[in-house]
Design goal:
Helix content: 25-40%
Order of helices and strands: EEEHEHEHEEEHEHHEH
Structural class: alpha/beta
Strand order of the largest sheet: 3-2-1-4-5
Largest sheet: 5 strands, mixed
Number of strands: 10
């Protein structure tokens, strides 16, 4: 059986990353590079392909960070993934930014219960709750965009110690502390493409890869109601 080869790219937040899975081997690049994604992502892709000694045409699929996150960042990521997938003739797999962050908390912290929150500006956060099942983070309920206080009121308090990840907890930590009896702060602040790969592999094996033209971003916030703040995404 040929080794499964999946490339992952993510530019949905301030971080920019690319990673490649070849069988059980992983190659990755990651950098926090706000507003510099368009210049950095393709060299990262080239670097991981060279590390593995393969070309785009050898891939089985390409995964991308589908959001939520910066509108501009999400669009860059899906655009790059679509361009690469067209060239390689392979399908795409969209991976939640929040799920990738939760998976990162498992990889780095051994977390099994994770709350993820990205600062969405305008006094809101992108939020998701995840639980570890068979080594993969699974969404509990829905991913939402919400006022932090309203989120706490709606969700209530989880019992015990829960790991929290993302910039939403940095900005609204005092309010969001009401989500659990005790929050353990993870070292994860942004998603990494390498943490998309376990989720992408599961999706591939489940037949969830889609043709390039069917790949879609997930913004959570309706673009029509978006009011861009000066100097912000």
């Amino acid at each position: 059986m040929n080794e499964l080869k999946i490339l992952a790219v993510d530019t949905a937040t301030e971080a920019c990353s690319a990673a490649l899975l070849v069988g059980d081997k992983l190659f990755s690049r990651w950098e926090e590079a706000p507003r510099d994604h368009t210049r950095k992502i393709l060299p990262m892709v080239q670097a991981v392909l060279e590390d593995a000694g393969i070309s785009l045409s050898d891939l089985d699929a390409i995964a991308f960070g589908r959001g939520p996150g910066s509108f501009t960042g999400v669009r860059i990521g899906i655009g790059v993934a679509q361009g690469l997938a067209f060239g390689a003739g392979v399908p795409l797999i969209g991976i939640s930014t929040l799920a990738a962050m939760a998976q990162g908390a498992y990889r780095l912290d051994g977390a099994e219960q994770v709350l993820t929150a990205i600062d969405a500006r305008m006094n809101e956060v992108y939020f998701g709750r995840y639980e570890l099942i068979d080594g993969r983070m699974q969404l509990v309920g829905d991913e939402v965009v919400s006022d932090p206080a309203a989120l706490v009121d709606a969700r209530g308090k989880l019992a015990g110690r829960v790991t929290c990840v993302g910039t939403g907890f940095e900005t609204y930590g005092e309010i969001l502390s009401g989500l659990a009896d005790e929050l353990a702060v993870s070292q994860v602040r942004f998603p990494a493409a390498e943490d998309m790969l376990p989720l992408a592999r599961t999706a591939w094996l489940a037949g969830e890869a889609v043709p390039v033209e069917q790949a879609t971003p997930v913004y959570l916030r309706d673009k029509v109601t978006w009011k861009k703040l000066p100097g912000r995404e």
